[in-house]
Amino acid sequence: MGFMLFLLTLGILFNSARAHVAFERGIKSCTNIKPSHVPGAEIISIESEEKHNFTVFASSPFLLQDISNLSVCEVNVTLTRTNAVDKVLLQIWLPLNNWNGRFMAVGGSGWAAGLGDLSLAPVVAQGFAAASTNAGLSGDPVNPGLWALKDNGKVNWDLLTNFGSRSVHDLAIVGKATTAKYYGVAAKYSYWNGCSTGGRQGLVAAQKYPNDFDGILAGSPAINWVEYVVAEHWPQVVMNEARAFPSPCELDGVVQSAVAACDELDGVKDNVVTNLAQCKFDPFKAVGSKVQCDGKDVTITQSVASIVSKIWDGPKTTTGAHLWYGLPVGALMDYLANSTFVNGTRVGNPFFVSDTWIRYFLEANPNFDSSSVNSAELSVLFSESSRRYAEAIDSACPDLSGLRKSDGKLLVWHGEADPIIFPQGTIKYRQNVERALGGAAKVDNFFRLFLAPGVDHCGQGLTPGAIPSDPLGALVSWVEKGIAPDMLTAETSPNAPAHFTRKICRYPLVSKYRGYGDPTSLASYNCVEGY
Ligand SMILES: *[C@@H]1O[C@H](CO)[C@@H](O)[C@H](O)[C@H]1NC(C)=O
Ligand SMILES: *[C@@H]1O[C@H](CO)[C@@H](O)[C@H](O)[C@H]1NC(C)=O
Ligand SMILES: *[C@@H]1O[C@H](CO)[C@@H](O)[C@H](O)[C@H]1NC(C)=O
Ligand SMILES: *[C@@H]1O[C@H](CO)[C@@H](O)[C@H](O)[C@H]1NC(C)=O
Ligand SMILES: *[C@@H]1O[C@H](CO)[C@@H](O)[C@H](O)[C@H]1NC(C)=O
């Protein structure tokens, strides 16, 4: 033990000594940085520039506060894949001061493979050298219209493949090589960090490029893309077939009744359904109750309850077979079951990801009206989506033996009130990995899942659950000190109606109140097998 510690200390001294020497010799220059060869790609240009004391301004929902006092060497690498028509921009930010010796690739959101400045700033502020790629796409997270189809009207497979997986590997190669060139020493540890699409990309790295990162943090991952994205359209189909478009506020009225009824199944009244498995609330029980919408009392009708019931149940074929999961109880309805007024009447307002997936990739027709889709048609779209695109973008291969072999660590977390990406899909993935790799205990050595009750998509704080405070810190301790996380500490958002902290336990354990002590403090909870 003493000897190991000694070696470890020596290693650190040695490394910092080297970094120091590199600096003194002036190798740390922000010009003339050439990353090494990128397999299967050709570098078109490299531009770099020192930027001092600048600010990246907040842009909701991706960056919630301004980040100032940034000083970096910015390197832009533009490359093209061999045999592909694309032009990919990779942005690498190398802190001029206080580099922490680590590299981090950061992921994208929605239809963007990377968010550039918005995702680089917060991690560079923590001392990481960081990199982001646009994968050759437009960078617009909301609309893939500028790149999804080629001029001949066919799906752009070059760019879909970039988005699906290969840009993740290029980012690791270019980002790590650029970091090493600049500092004169390789990063000691490399990380992936992303949520949503960024979470999906992290899992792509775990599945396909297991040697790229020492640690992968994947939040609310958009895996099972070919299934869940079509399933996101189900609430629109339900409303369409009911010929009724209640306001999201009315639908959320039923959700509130369910939350109230199931709140204390875990023994704690906190406005959060923590014991989701035991929550069997019948939405028809909410009929006749009142909810405030636009300052008016609205009575929940049979029709509204029926719509919520089907949304929770999830998409089905015309013969009643389940296609995918429904929204979990507690998730807000306004994303997937949204509607809007046109000439004084409410009409469906499909969610942008499912709407554009259907229009561009399944129909190859930007003018297709997805709001007309019925359940029979949705079943067909569901199987077409799998048949044509699973290979390119499903990102749910359970064989993580490569990651296990490379000694990489994967930390996945998902909010259990996610209104966009069904957390049940992430649980299913973890179970598939257990099945593929010989059981839960073996998987826990390198892949841990954390489910956060009452938390929305990527922890924006719109629902009242406690959001993991520092999952990255937990991953870093796991990778660098071998401390495998059994729980994540979590805290409610500053906007939450009530403040509390909580333990988020490693799946499949749950956080249970001890029965004494302050129920708003995480110290009063234990990770146990059931409530
Ligand atoms: C890198 O690309 C970004 C995004 O296009 C641009 O704003 C920035 O000025 C570029 N930096 C350099 C050094 O060329
Ligand atoms: C950094 O920029 C801020 C304004 O954004 C300015 O107030 C501050 O003086 C600058 N610091 C240095 C060291 O230039
Ligand atoms: C700004 O960054 C520099 C260099 O990293 C640091 O020395 C300084 O303390 C920072 N200033 C503020 C106000 O955070
Ligand atoms: C729901 O639709 C309205 C009207 O188009 C829009 O303003 C709102 O942003 C949508 N809500 C969500 C969560 O997308
Ligand atoms: C709304 O009403 C106007 C005037 O009657 C009509 O011209 C327009 O087409 C209508 N819009 C839609 C989307 O139905």
From TrEMBL:
Pfam families: Tannase. Its EC number is 3.1.1.-. GO terms for molecular function: feruloyl esterase activity; metal ion binding. It is an enzyme of class 3 (hydrolase). Residues 1-19 form the signal peptide. PANTHER family: CARBOXYLIC ESTER HYDROLASE, FERULOYL ESTERASE B-RELATED. This is Carboxylic ester hydrolase. It comes from Hyaloscypha bicolor E.
